[in-house]
Amino acid sequence: MQTKRVTFLDSMRGFAAAWVVVYHLNEEGKFTPGAYQAFVEAGSLGVPIFFVLSGFSIHASLLKSPEVSAFLWKRFWRIYPPYLASLAVVLVVLIVRKIATGTNDLTTIPHDPLGWFETIMLTTKPVTWTVPINPVYWTFSYEAAFYLWLTLGLMFPRLRWPLLFAPLVLSNAWSARPDFFVGYWCLFALGVAIAEWRHEGKILAPALAVLCLTDALLHRTFGETMAGLAAFALIIMALSNRFAWLNREPILHRVGHWSYSLYLVHVPIGVWIALSFDPRPRVLSANSVWLHWSIDGFALLLSCVFAWAFARLIERPSIMIAHTTPSWPWIYWRAR
User: Burial code of 220-229, b = ≥16 C-beta within 10 A, e = fewer?
Assistant: First the structure.
């Protein structure tokens, strides 16, 4: 079955990206208890939503790819050039900060060639001990591992289902909390299960989803599990005719078109630059609520404007290249 594109999936991406932005804007703050505090502190749950959405979208794309080279070509151009460009943005902000203040108190930068190599190759912590120069970069190590694991299923079609189940079996057999991509595979594979069900409708797809939820309940936080389950349910709803009205959401789906750019640049632009104009510390008190919200709104708006421009200048041209035909004979492998 062919997977149709529905705009509500972009709406979910837009919401998740904005939620993560608000979380990082207030990560260092201490808040008076309230609804805003609860919303802000839960903003990290945008990441599980992204993982489930990514699992569905990437696996649906992979199932339609006849060749490994075509799949890897699209993933490379979709993800890597914008990542490198965002790394340049980070470095420019750090250099300006160093010139203006004489110090770098924003982040940890690599101090040796190996650290820079690991940063460029998306193999920072938790893959290695190198701390990501941008705190959001840790998720790309997981995404890259997910893509490579799914690619094995394309190269060896008969092993596709064993490969999908293997990390979950390993994780559920793990007495402690699993490390690296095995620990988050349960969220990514929730989206994979939807793509598989729409592709062939095999009973293995619901079994995969059940095992994912079991693993999440055992090894992820309750919030992560609920966020992943909510994303799972909303994707199914958005793909059904009964809930077609979801696809008429007018605002967030537009943000979703450049949510990747927003995710990449919101820390250097929103957190490091915009918050430098905050006349007060990142502390929300009874008499500074409106000021705090105004500054958050300004930082979010500045991040969105920059992300929109970044998407037009960097991300969109990279996507256009991704849709060209690759010529990589050295990795050519047709799925059988």
Answer: beeebbebbb
Calpha distance 134→86 (Å, rounded): 9
Cα separation of 157 and 163, whole Å?
Answer: 10
| Per-residue buried b or exposed e for 127-139, using 16+ beta carbons within 10 Å of the residue's own CB | beebbbbbebbbb
- 8 Å CB contact between 43 and 19: yes
Taking the C-alpha atoms of residue 197 and residue 193, their distance in angstroms, rounded to an integer, is 6
Cis peptide before 126 (omega within 30 of 0): yes
- Distance (Å, rounded) from C-alpha 90 to C-alpha 277? 18
HEC secondary structure over 4-55? CCCHHHHHHHHHHHHHHHHHHHCCCCEECCCHHHHHHHCHHHHHHHHHHHHH
The span from the CA of 306 to the CA of 318, in Å, is: 17
| Beta strand pairing call for 30-31 and 283-284 | parallel
Residue 301's pLDDT band, with cuts at 50, 70 and 90, is very high
Tokens of 275: 């918050």
pLDDT the model gives residue 334: 47
Query: What does the alpha-carbon distance between residue 38 and residue 19 come to, in Å, rounded to a whole number?
Result: 12
**Mean pLDDT confidence for 312-325:** 91
Distance CA 299, CA 287 (A): 20
- The answer to whether the CB of 184 falls within 8 A of the CB of 50 is no
What the block records as the tokens of 287 is: 């008499």
The phi and psi torsions of 67 (rounded to 5 degrees) equal: -135, 150
pLDDT at 2: 40
Task: Note the pTM of the prediction, 2 decimals.
Answer: 0.91
Q: List beta partners, residue 31.
A: 284
The model's confidence at residue 335, banded by pLDDT at 50, 70 and 90, is very low
CA atoms of 16 and 115, how far apart (whole Å):
30
Q: Please, what is the end-to-end C-alpha distance for the chain in angstroms?
A: 18
